[in-house]
Amino acid sequence: MDAFADTALFTLLVAMLGGAIRVSTPFMFVALGECLTEKSGRINLGLEGNLVLGAMIAYAISFHTGSPWTGVLAAGLSGLFLGAIHGYVCKLPRVNDIAVGIAMMAFGTGLAFYLGKPYIQPSAPRLEAIPLGEWTGIPSLAQALAINPLFFVGIALAVGMSWFFRNTRMGLVVRTTGDSAPAAKAMGVSVDLVRFLATAAGGFLAGVGGSFLSLSYPGSWNEGLSSGQGLMAVALVIFARWDPIRCVWAALLFGAAGAIGPAMQAIGVTQGFYFFNAAPYILTLLIMASSARSRFSGRDAPGELSIVK
Amino acid sequence: MPKIEFSRRSLLKAGAAGLAAATLPAGLARAQGSVVIGSVYVGPRADFGWNQAHAMAMDIIKGVPGVTVIEEENVPETDAVAQTMESMINLDGANVILGTSFGYFEPFMVDLAARYPDVQFRHAAPLWSADKHPANLGSYFCYLNQAHYVNGVAAGLSSASGKIGFVAAKPIPSVLSNINSVLLGARSVNPNATVQLIFTGDWSMPVREAEAANALVDAGCDVITCHVDGPKVVIETAEARGVKSCGHNASQAALAPNGFITGAEYKWETIYRLYADNFAKGEALPNVVVGGYHNDMVQNTAFGAGATPEAIAAAEAAIEGLKAGKPIYVGPLNDNAGNLVIEGEKDNYDPELDGMNYLLDGVVGSIT
Q1: For chain B, does the N or the C end have fewer beta carbons within 10 angstroms?
Q2: Is a pLDDT exceeding 70 seen at residue B216?
């Protein structure tokens, strides 16, 4: 074991494992939030705004109260607020949810930059990771296995959502609303109300995802913090074909692939770093291309989505 | 057909100019002998990095009598910068305009300088040349690699493993020069020292910067330094992993109370003070101002808890050497592919070094 622990391959694998765990959480939360919203038949492209505002609010609240978990909650509420606006505006007649989403993205990031100015300099208390790798005795592995509780919350949430969609009446209502609004109406369900609640709840999750960025990893607030992760997470939902469990796998894969670029350079494979840094996107494209040819791929998309109709 | 420019900003300007003409007697609109300096930043003023270094220098200049400072942050390298600068000139009466981002120069500042010959424009990169550009435009630049050399000296004596990790944004000459200078500084005190390099590919990629810092620590580096726009994430990650760190651009000492060694900092206020003084005396502003340690234009952050006593002594000696003009690049030096790249001694301001496109032997990394 010790001999293997010194090899370059081991370093790369540990970096990918660590990257999957460290980087995936915000993708997971935004993707789960978008999954819920899209299952109800609406697209919210504005979750990047929720992510950035959530990151900023979480950092500010953690700084003022000294309690990072209060920050996480506040981030969720800020996301709920943005999601609720999106949900309300979209139920007005002749409103395009994609255009509103883009406007909300600009609004959310702009609000975060405006309110966030005084919080770039100070250091706020961060979320503590749970050290699960001390028993290995290998520092790099111990570091990779220091896991933030939000990671487990995200996985539990995915399992819960999957069960909710399949086994509960509420889940059936959400799915019906997303697949066929007339059918939902025939059931006596208020389509607008279901979509409003699903969009607001999805916004809440994206806000919590943002809190992970500022309070755990990389763990500080500045205006370049997200670099488009919220947008990528929305794309991951299509990649995961609207299945919460597959959203988790997609987020983990994306996190692991993102670690390839830095880790390859660290072990001495320095040629072609631009290529390795693009690994997550190349990988996503390849899997998308191969899965799009699958006979079942079209069946998974909720029928009411404005891009599907 | 001539292009008609008709924007909200130009309407506002016209309105303001009309109002001023109607209400103020000519010549009283601007106080006598005062200088209004307009400074434009590409990012937020408080980024722990490049923009903060400029903004802090401007804060010092604000205290100089007769100087008014106006600033705008988050101005992208597009037509937006031309509009910002024009409104500084027309609405705020700026007579010196400082553009602090590389991409502001061509075509925006070059065009504006031709259009406003009474205003002095200065740009923070060595791009101005007398035969190509207007005479009221100019360049200023600090050779930060001298301070990175001092970082290297201190890091070389503060590291147990002799492996220094470097997180860099892009392989352009000024970045490469900082990397090579860290190596030469470290090698001057520890001939076996190496620099392990990771490029992130862009100026601000916080998540990838954190991944890079983690990967370097996992690869055995026990000092981490960087050249990215905002070094906050790199320094905080290094501190969280329990390794030492050296800063870049501005002071990051507060972010790493246990592991901070020292940092390479600009001293823009030396140049800004010079501009303000010259203007107040009615003298012409120099077109080109460049410098480093010998004329007080770079500095190192006060030593932190990560610096050993030997490191502090050696770094202070290195600073004295640089002030006296001791060269950093002394050949024969090979690049890390084995080619001879520097033969004899190079002056620290040798223009040949401005085009650096190689990593020296001892740097583990590649520019492609």
Answers
A1: N
A2: yes
For range B3-18, the mean pLDDT: 50
Contact in structure between A205 and A32 (CB atoms under 8 Å): yes
Grouping H, G, I as helix, E, B as strand and the rest as coil, residue A6 is: coil
The contact set of A with B (CB < 8 A) is 11, 14-15, 18-19, 22-23, 113, 117, 120-121, 123, 139-140, 143, 213, 217-220, 222-225, 227, 229, 258-259, 261-263, 265-268, 270-274, 277
The position carrying tokens 């894969």 is A253
CA distance A273 to chain B (A): 7
Rounded CA separation B306/B335 (Å)? 30
ipTM of the complex: 0.87
> What's the rounded Cα separation, in Å, for the pair B258 and B292?
29
Query: What domains appear along chain B, each with residue ranges and CATH number?
Result: 34-142 (3.40.50.2300), 145-265+298-364 (3.40.50.2300)
Record the tokens describing residue A287, joined without a space.
């899997």
| Chain A residues touching residue B204 (CB < 8 angstroms) | 222, 224, 227
CA distance B30 to chain A (A): 32
- Which residues of chain A make contact with B232, given a CB cutoff of 8 A? 220, 222
pLDDT in tens, A27-68: 999 999 999 999 999 999 999 999 999 999 999 999 999 999
Model confidence pLDDT, tens digit, residues B143-176 = 999 999 999 999 999 999 999 999 999 898 889 9
Q: Please name which of B361, B328, B340 lies closest in space to residue B151, comparing C-alpha atoms.
A: B328
Check if B194 contacts A (Cβ < 8 Å).
Answer: no
- pLDDT tens for residues A246-295? 999 999 998 898 888 888 888 888 888 888 888 888 887 887 787 766 66
Contact B206 A218 (CB under 8 A): yes
For residue B351, what pLDDT band results from cuts at 50, 70 and 90?
A: confident
